[in-house]
Design brief:
Number of domains: 2
Low-confidence stretches: none
Number of helices: 14
Distance between the termini: 20 Å
Largest sheet: 7 strands, mixed
Number of strands: 12
CATH class of the largest domain: Alpha Beta
Strand content: 5-15%
Mean pLDDT: 95
CATH topology of the largest domain: Rossmann fold
Shape: globular
Helix content: 25-40%
Radius of gyration: 20 Å
CATH superfamily of the largest domain: Glycogen Phosphorylase B
Order of helices and strands: EEHEHEHEHHEHEEHEHEHEHEHHHH
Amino acid sequence: MNFSSLQGLAVLNPNGRDPDQSFAEGPGLPSGGLHPPVNYHAYAACTQGGFYRHTERAARHRSVLLLLRGDFSEAGRAFETLKAHGCFIAVSFKESGTHQVTKQLLRPRRFRLFREIAAAADLCLSSTPDLVPLYTSVSKRVAFVPTPYPVDVLGWDFSKPVQDRKGIFIGTREFDVPTRNHLLALATARTLSFPVTVVNPDGRSGLRKLAMLKFPEDQLTIVEPLPFPEYLRLIASHRLVLQFDQSAVPGQVAGDSLLCGIPTVGGNGAIERLAFPELNGHGRSFEELRNLARRLLEDDAFYSQQVAEKRKLDQISFAKTRETLASLFPGAA
C-alpha cells in the first residue's frame, strides 16, 4: 500500500467535467465561481476531503468514493489504479435517479461491468433508498447515506423573513424528462392563481413551451440559470417550492429549499422524504400535492408549522454525515 493518507474522503469522477476541488478548509462560503458543497461534492466537503477528476490525485487519500457513469470504462480503469495504491474504494452511480440508472444498465456489457466493479469494491454507497436493492444484488457491503447539505454550517443560511416570501418557485426545469413531470407542475401552479417563477435553461425553445401554457401576463416570471448563491437567494424569496418529480433522485430540490428555509411540496427524492414527510410526493397524488400547496399559500398557521417541523435534518447535516462516513470509510474523519 502506497497511499499518502490525506485526510477526508476523496470523491472521484474520472475524467469528468468538474475540475479538481479541495475542501481541506471545509465547505467555504457561497461563491459563484466554485462548485457548491452539494450533491456528491458534499460527501467530500463535509469530511474536508476533495472532489477529483484525476485518479492519481484522488489516490492520495486513504478512502475514495468512485462515481460510475457512462459505459463504466473510465471507472473500471480508475478502480484498478486505486486498488494498486491500496485505497479503500466505495462506488456509487453519479446519476442516481431510477430512470437514469435503468438507462445505463440496459446494455448487457454495462451491466456486467457494473456487477464486476461493485462486487470488487469495499462498499456500495447509495445516495437514495431506491437503489439499495440493486446494490445488494451484487454486494453484501451496502450503505444508504443521503447526500448532505450544509444546513449546520455558518454562512449557508439563505432564509428570509416570512413576510418577504411571495409565490411559488417551480423546482424542476426539464420538459423532456418524463419522470420530472415539469409540464404538470407548471400547469398546476397556474391554477393556484399565485405568482410563479420558473428557470428556463432552454432559451427560445423553452420560452415557446412556456408560452403554450397561457399564463396570465402578470403571474409568470421566467429567469435564466443563475450562479448558485444568486439562485438560492431567488428561491428564498418565495413562499414554497413546487415539483412533481417522480425520478427518485437524491433530492437537490429539497436540499436547496432547506438552505432557504422554505418548504418543498412534491418530489419523491431521498431528502424530500426525510425532511418533508407531510409534503413530499411519495405515495401522494398530484391533486393532493396541489391542495397542500394551496394550503401553504393561504394558511399561515399550517405554513409556520411546516417550516418549523422540518424533520430529520440531522441526518443530512454535515456534522451527522461526517460521523456516518467516518464509521464507513477509513481515514474519512
